[in-house]
């Protein structure tokens, strides 16, 4: 077994839900990943031993302060932030994005513009559309090329001008797996004078992120998509965090990192997030004397490499099944996508496929997964969207082979759609008789 193959093997042993003999095959990872044992262990230890609110004069509160600080430091390491104060926690990415967009709105004037993209999850579109509606701003759209579901760079550039104040785009698509060149998009947006907000929710479990190298102003992701508990995190470059005015209750600290954290946070989710990040750091190929950031970069690079093999294997296998696959499929371009695939079949609705495969033990999502603009652009929204297969580093080639065999048998074995209406049957009988 190669070092890369053993990565999945080592990883799987740490996930109780995955090694359960009667468990499903998890192909629903873009909707949320499974957790290693260390995550619930850390959450339980916090709740049973340290459970308190922050900044008190007693021991459990002091320990809670330490848990909170450590979680901010862990996420700073995960994202390559310059300091823990640039990280904020919240219930999820969507809530943080609404909060930040409202605060940014205090600096915007009627007639100014925000650039959004068709490739994004609605959590990085709707907050900006609603802000624009409230303040009289204009929205520009960067379009997707429907042939390969990549972002059309010309349309992105055409959407930027001297009035653009914010460019909001995704690191990677949650539906079709396209990975954007976020460094390039950030540079173009900055040249136009816009601030850059990146949704890294889908990219986070798949490769190393370096906010300083990208040069973005804001970046957000969600620990429950990278093997942690349900929570959201937001990176805000420190000068923005110091300048912007957040909506806060009066006695609460407005200083980073508390700027975007309203009310009492889920401290147990913070403990679990630190554990998830430490888990990722622990699967780095062994090298002595690495700090956590260096281990994370090594681990996420190894994960990326392993997943490239999964991507190619699944892509080549899907080419042998009569389905339409959306996004990049050419073997020499696969590094431009994640192992997240959307597909449709002529003879089944996405829901019928998900149900049939669900009965055979595969967890899969169907629908639009809130990638509403993309589904509309691809003409899929009115027909139930697409079936989504999303792999992470604990998935294996063997799972892909089993899945492909079952997908083929569901699709070829029996046609379940379109379900003929009584009128259609009667008319067919009539025609047959005639
Ligand atoms: C790309 C992307 N952005 C944003 C979100 C929303 O994240 P959250 O559930 O943390 O609000 C999701 C959730 O699926 C997503 O896939």
Q: What does this molecule look like?
A:
- This protein is α/β, with parallel strands linked by helices and 434 residues long.
- It folds into 2 domains: 3-31 and 293-413, Aspartate Aminotransferase, domain 1 (Alpha-Beta Complex); 40-280, 3-Layer(aba) Sandwich (Aspartate Aminotransferase, domain 2), CATH 3.40.640.10.
- The protein is 43% helix and 14% strand.
- Helix 1 (3-12) packs across helix 12, helix 5 packs parallel to helix 6 (126-135) and helix 12 runs parallel beside helix 15.
- The longest helix is centred in the C-terminal third of the chain and has 27 residues, at 292-318.
- The model is unreliable at 417-434 (pLDDT under 50).
- The site of pyridoxal-5'-phosphate has 14 residues, from helix 5.
Question: What CATH architecture of the largest domain do you see?
Answer: 3-Layer(aba) Sandwich
Count every beta strand, where a strand is a DSSP E run of 2 or more residues: 15
CATH homologous superfamily of the largest domain - what is it? Type I PLP-dependent aspartate aminotransferase-like (Major domain)
Number of domains: 2
**End-to-end distance, in Å?**
64 Å
Residue windows where pLDDT falls under 50 for at least 5 positions: 417-434
Estimate the global geometry from the Cα principal axes.
Answer: globular
Radius of gyration from CA coordinates:
23 Å
The CATH topology label of the largest domain is Aspartate Aminotransferase, domain 2
Strand portion, in percent? 5-15%
CATH class designation of the largest domain: Alpha Beta
Largest sheet geometry: 7 strands, mixed
Strand order of the biggest β-sheet? 2-10-9-8-7-3-4
As a percent range, the share of helical residues equals: 40-55%
Mean pLDDT: 94
List all distinct small molecules, including ions and cofactors, that are bound in this structure.
pyridoxal-5'-phosphate
Structural class by helix and strand composition = alpha/beta
């Amino acid at each position: 077994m190669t070092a890369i193959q053993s990565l999945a093997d080592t990883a799987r042993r740490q996930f109780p839900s995955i090694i359960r003999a009667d468990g499903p095959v998890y192909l629903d990872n873009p909707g949320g990943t499974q957790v290693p044992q260390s995550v619930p262990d850390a959450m339980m230890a916090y709740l049973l031993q340290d459970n308190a609110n922050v900044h008190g004069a007693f021991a459990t509160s002091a320990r809670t302060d330490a848990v909170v600080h450590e979680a901010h430091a862990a996420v700073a390491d995960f994202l390559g932030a310059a300091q823990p104060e640039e990280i904020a926690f919240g219930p999820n990415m969507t809530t943080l994005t609404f909060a930040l967009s409202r605060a940014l709105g205090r600096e915007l004037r009627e007639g100014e513009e925000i650039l959004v993209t068709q490739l994004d999850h609605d959590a990085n579109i709707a907050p900006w559309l609603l802000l624009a509606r409230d303040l009289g701003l204009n929205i520009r759209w960067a379009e997707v090329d429907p042939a390969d579901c990549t972002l059309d760079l010309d349309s992105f550039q055409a959407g930027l001008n001297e009035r653009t104040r914010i460019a909001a785009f995704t690191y990677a698509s949650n539906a079709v797996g396209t990975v954007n060149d976020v460094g390039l998009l950030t540079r173009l947006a900055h040249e136009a004078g816009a601030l850059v907000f990146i949704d890294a929710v889908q990219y986070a479990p798949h490769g190393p992120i370096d906010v300083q190298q990208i040069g973005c102003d804001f970046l957000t992701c969600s620990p429950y998509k990278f093997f942690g508990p349900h929570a959201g995190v937001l990176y805000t470059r420190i000068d923005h965090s110091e300048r912007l005015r957040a909506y806060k209750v009066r006695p609460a600290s407005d200083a980073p990192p508390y700027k975007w954290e309203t009310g009492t946070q889920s401290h147990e989710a913070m403990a679990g997030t630190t554990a998830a990040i430490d888990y990722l750091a622990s699967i780095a190929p062994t090298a002595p004397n690495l700090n956590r950031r260096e281990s994370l970069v090594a681990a996420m690079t190894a994960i990326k490499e392993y997943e490239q093999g999964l991507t190619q294997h699944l892509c080549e296998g899907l080419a042998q099944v009569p389905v339409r696959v959306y996004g990049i499929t050419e073997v020499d371009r696969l590094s431009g996508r994640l192992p997240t695939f959307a597909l449709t079949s002529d003879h089944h609705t996405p829901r019928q496929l998900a149900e049939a495969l669900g009965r055979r033990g595969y967890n899969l999502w169907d629908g639009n997964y809130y990638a509403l603009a993309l589904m509309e652009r691809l003409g899929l929204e009115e027909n139930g969207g697409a079936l989504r297969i999303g792999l992470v580093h604990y998935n294996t080639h063997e799972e892909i082979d089993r899945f492909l065999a079952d997908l083929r048998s569901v699709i070829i074995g029996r046609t379940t759609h379109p379900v003929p209406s009584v009128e259609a049957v009667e008319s067919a009988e009539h025609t047959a008789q005639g």
